[in-house]
Every structure is written in structure tokens, then in C-alpha cells.
Design brief:
single chain, 111 residues, mainly alpha, three-stranded mixed β-sheet, 3 strands, 51% helix, globular
């Protein structure tokens, strides 16, 4: 699976502010957006990386607009923690099958 990781992301900074979090990783499409953390830190933290990769899979399965819409509706109805997409992503944190998606070193998908 191809994906990108973008450090110092405007979108992740906004999400961090909204969530009251010092560090943030968030996914839009096939890009993991980072705020106040690095690609290296994300890649070292397998649980965190698997969580974000699960969101990339969700985007791919539903499509960009449909995923955003369903995620928003789910969050408004149930809140962030009980959102089915977040529940699924938390379950993925211990799913080693996501490790086959991990790119390391100078892969062109990083940056």
C-alpha cells in the first residue's frame, strides 16, 4: 500500500488544537499528517502507525468524501472515542498484518 507521511502539517496542527493534544497524527486520504512529531517517531511506534494505517484502509474502502462524511456523522452521534472508525483503528493497533504496509528508509512515500 502506498501512502505518504507529512510532517508539520497544517491539518494535523488544527486537529491537535481541537483535540487538546500536544502531538497529532491524522489521515486524509493516503497521507498521514503529523504535528509536533516526526516520521521517525511515528515509525518507531508500531501501535500508533497501525492505527493511522487503518484509517488509510478505511479511506480506500469508502472513498475520500464518503469516509469523511461517515466519520463526521459518526463522531457527532457517538463522539470521538465511540466512533466506529476509531474503534476499528484502535483494534488495528495490535494487528500485525498492518506491518506489511510499513515503509522504512528513503522510500519515496515518506516526506
Amino acid at each position: 500500500m502506498n501512502y505518504r507521511i507529512r510532517e508539520r502539517s497544517f491539518w494535523a496542527r488544527l486537529a491537535a488544537r481541537k483535540m487538546g493534544s500536544e502531538k497529532m497524527a491524522m489521515v486524509l486520504g493516503t497521507t498521514i499528517h503529523l504535528h509536533n512529531t516526526s516520521v521517525e517517531e511515528l515509525l518507531r511506534n508500531r501501535r500508533w502507525l497501525r492505527h493511522e494505517l487503518a484509517h488509510i484502509r478505511q479511506f480506500r474502502e469508502l472513498g475520500f468524501i464518503r469516509f469523511l462524511w461517515e466519520y463526521l456523522v459518526e463522531s457527532m452521534r457517538k463522539g470521538y472515542y465511540h466512533n466506529r472508525f476509531e474503534i476499528e483503528a484502535r483494534a488495528a493497533e495490535i494487528d500485525e498484518s498492518y506491518d506489511s504496509w510499513v515503509y522504512v528508509g528513503g522510500n519515496s512515500t515518506l516526506g
